[in-house]
UniProtKB/TrEMBL annotation:
GO terms for cellular component: cytosol. The lineage of its organism: Bacteria, Bacillati, Bacillota, Bacilli, Bacillales. Pathway: Purine metabolism; IMP biosynthesis via salvage pathway; IMP from hypoxanthine: step 1/1; Purine metabolism; GMP biosynthesis via salvage pathway; GMP from guanine: step 1/1. Residues 14-158 form the Phosphoribosyltransferase domain. This is Hypoxanthine phosphoribosyltransferase.
């Protein structure tokens, strides 16, 4: 599996430093507010697990499972496979993403959460890849920006594989083209 990676983009240590930095910012911004962190499955699960360890204020967690990808490309159509189990009406919501690329999925989720009358809505993402952006997204908490290339590991997958790598790496193109 590790031989399928051409280059490590973010090491385990770098990921932990990002989670800690973002967790501290969220702690400051949400002290006394009990936000709901909404993880977008499946890719965000490892990042969300590490991030919440560094948030030192009361919080709740929930998950949505949404899909817009076919292979390595966004289809442009967002499907909700699992909806929230918690009401966001009047609540402070932070959507937790692994990577933002086109912005299509995130815009749909944000519209839905705003429609459900959240008191506030912010986004935290580990990775931002603006080169592929189709819709603008206002992201308050960004871990790091990455260049073009297909990344896997630390929750990110190709065909449900590689999620269990402890770092994020570039997948060799011959494996997905």
């Amino acid at each position: 599996m590790r031989n399928d990676i051409s280059e490590v983009v973010l090491s385990e240590e770098e990921i932990q430093n990002i989670a800690e930095r973002l967790g501290r910012r969220i702690t400051e911004d949400y002290e006394g507010k009990t936000p709901i962190l909404v993880g977008l499955l499946k890719g965000s699960i490892m990042f969300m697990g590490d991030l919440i360890k560094y948030i030192d204020t009361h919080l709740e967690i929930d998950f949505m499972d949404v899909s817009s990808y076919v292979g390595t490309k966004s289809s442009g159509e967002v499907k909700i496979l699992k909806d929230l189990s918690t009401s966001v009406d009047g609540r402070h919501v932070i959507v937790v993403e692994d990577i933002i690329e086109t912005g299509t999925t995130l815009n749909s989720i944000m519209d839905l959460i705003e429609y459900r009358n959240a008191a506030s809505l912010e986004i935290v993402t580990l990775l931002d890849k603006p080169i592929n952006r189709k819709l603008e997204v206002d992201v308050k908490y960004v871990g790091t920006e990455i260049p073009d290339g297909f990344v896997v590991g630390y929750g990110l997958d190709f065909d449900e594989k590689y999620r269990n790598l402890p770092y994020i790496g570039l997948l060799k193109p011959e494996l997905y083209q």
